[in-house]
């Protein structure tokens, strides 16, 4: 790959404002090529950035430790700062690929926090795009067909950059051979028990070209849908009030129905603490299309949806609300809705309030005009200093940080959904 080709892989804005960059390097051909392409790019562009290579050792194979050490030695020989981070703890028996991916991104974000980096770069390729597209096509995932965007947001604060999505793996391997850089062959890449490996065997040049075109089309469709849904949320004056999401239907039109279904499905997932919106839209479409003066309800994604002719109200369904103990110096997510950091020296208990407790709190605060059902499912923090009731701004426990999260956007936000994400984020930040 020529110096011109290397320069074209990156945009001027990719690293603007970033003094430190995290590069995820497993030791495979894709990530090693990324590391050295970035190194050459910064040299050619005279761009002074601190580049830190991070190898995540998932500790799933006996040889993974030695592979991580190989990357460390290679980086040292090129004077590239490198660190190995290990995925510790008990490993799952099923869904290992997806759970390992979540753990990997969490460890990369921790490394970014540690070194003050706001950009994390990964080496996903055109081959990865094609494989993922086919896998999601087989699952009939309409929104998922947009696959991986070049830019995404991790944990709502780190930029995830994938600059190699239009580059073939074979091209990257040729680049490494020219520089006499050896890469590690992961044996799991040949294990047919993995769906991705089985699909990879049937991908030819035609499939890559088709997938690239199809992904571009799906990405544009998803971005356009996100923008329409965001505009509709603003039009319906979406607001978040005391753990309920409200919509004013006075301005809605019949032409808005398709986007309205997407908006309410996403809202239900957020309010119900689910990571993904429901793909079963038929019952929701039927429910939302029948507008009349009678109050009607349905449940979806762990949320209760209440609708009349003039409004929609969504809150967490009073079901499967579990208690959670958060030990000192630990973090946790309760019910997929609240992120808690316990900085105190004692454990705290997270749960929903009972009716007696809730009535006592409302009486003490002299609050009458409330939606009781939504308050029954909100988060209550019980500690040595009393209780916290964040939704009503009752805070007694020091060193307890609690934040309302939106689980569908909590781990990663695709650039296709940036507009919709920010509309929700602004609404949630205005909680009254």
Can you offer a commentary on this structure?
The chain is α+β, with helices and mostly antiparallel strands. It folds into two domains: 3-220, HUPs (Rossmann fold); 324-408, no CATH class. 40% of the residues lie in helices and 19% in strands. It has 14 helices and 19 strands. It has helices at 3-9, 29-44, 64-77, 96-115, 126-138, 169-178, 195-200, 205-235, 257-272, 282-289, 355-365, 372-375, 407-410, 418-429; strands at 20-24, 50-57, 81-86, 119-121, 151-154, 158-161, 239-240, 245-248, 296-300, 303-307, 311-316, 324-326, 331-334, 338-342, 348-351, 380-383, 386-388, 400-404, 412-414. The protein has a seven-stranded mixed β-sheet with strand order 3-2-1-4-6-5-19, with helices on both faces. A five-stranded antiparallel β-sheet has the order 7-8-11-10-9. It has a four-stranded antiparallel β-sheet with strand order 12-15-16-17, with no helix packed on it. Strand 16 (380-383) and strand 17 (386-388) form a beta hairpin. Helix 8 (205-235) runs parallel beside helix 14. The termini are far apart.
